[in-house]
């Protein structure tokens, strides 16, 4: 089933029933159709991934246009901006045209400070308005996806409270997604929330809308799982992919966050297996975006080459 057919099918389902938070959702077989056979007879189709990187990773004193040109020269096809953006849209579009770079997605920058799960309706409203602005911006920039952290659990916000509040907030965002035609992609992060692939799948299925899915971060789950398992379970719900590395040995010996201080291909991701999982689900998001420590052009070139090797496992 291609994306257009899926959206038509899921759009019919979306209004059929109201799903109670924390209840199970059943997706009809017409939506979760099996994918065709791909390379070597394995389930899946030919998958193509372009390389992108976060704008903040470009650590050189250059103009916006020249930063975009540098990314393109280093082998990246796209750049991911934080949104609402810090530059005039016209300036970004001019730099995009001159550089030949693509802007496939943006990261909303208010979902941590003003979470969609916050007990205060005013805080949630602030984030909803910010994400709505991001949806409009990414459309203007020629992209299709806004990354959003769905919620945060802490000593002041219970798991169940975060679950219900965040789902309701995302439902409030659906009209903005429909108006723009842009996707809301929820990222798995260290927010003490949705830490199981089965739960992450159910969470999206309960919202039950074709423009709401997952922005799957391959490295973030290594703290408590295996990305290939998540990819298999989330399947068609994955809209975009973030790439980073993680070392459990560094986490255990030096501290939790130290696990990220390892180059791509040097950590615990089994990249041939991970990419096989991406291929098996017939992923159609089209992008693999680096979210790792940035640096100068030499450092970024190394990341570009590492990503080429990883994509080569498809």
Helix content: 40-55%
Low-confidence stretches: 1-42
Give the overall average pLDDT: 89
Structural class based on helices, strands and sheet pairing: alpha/beta
Order of helices and strands: HEHEHEHEHEHEHEHHEH
Number of helices: 10
Q: Strand fraction band?
A: 5-15%
Characterize the biggest β-sheet: 8 strands, parallel, barrel
Radius of gyration: 19 Å
The separation of the N and C termini measures: 20 Å
Please provide the count of β strands.
8
Shape: globular
Order of strands, widest sheet: 1-2-3-4-5-6-7-8
Describe the protein in words:
It is a single chain. 44% of the residues are buried. It is built from ten helices and eight strands. The chain has an eight-stranded parallel barrel with strand order 1-2-3-4-5-6-7-8, surrounded by five helices. Residues 1-42 have low confidence and may be disordered. The protein starts with a helix and ends with a helix. The chain is of the alpha/beta class. The longest helix has 22 residues, at 159-180. Helix 6 runs parallel beside helix 7 (227-234).
Write the layout of secondary structure elements.
Blueprint (H helix, E strand, L loop, with lengths): L2 H12 L35 E5 L9 H10 L4 E6 L5 H11 L5 E4 L12 H20 L4 E4 L10 H22 L2 E5 L9 H11 L4 E6 L9 H8 L3 E6 L4 H7 L16 H10 L6 E4 L6 H15 L3
Parallel strand pairs: 1-2, 1-8, 2-3, 3-4, 4-5, 5-6, 6-7, 7-8
Helix pairs in contact: 2-3, 4-5, 6-7, 7-9
Question: Which terms would index this structure?
Answer:
314 residues, alpha/beta, 40% helix
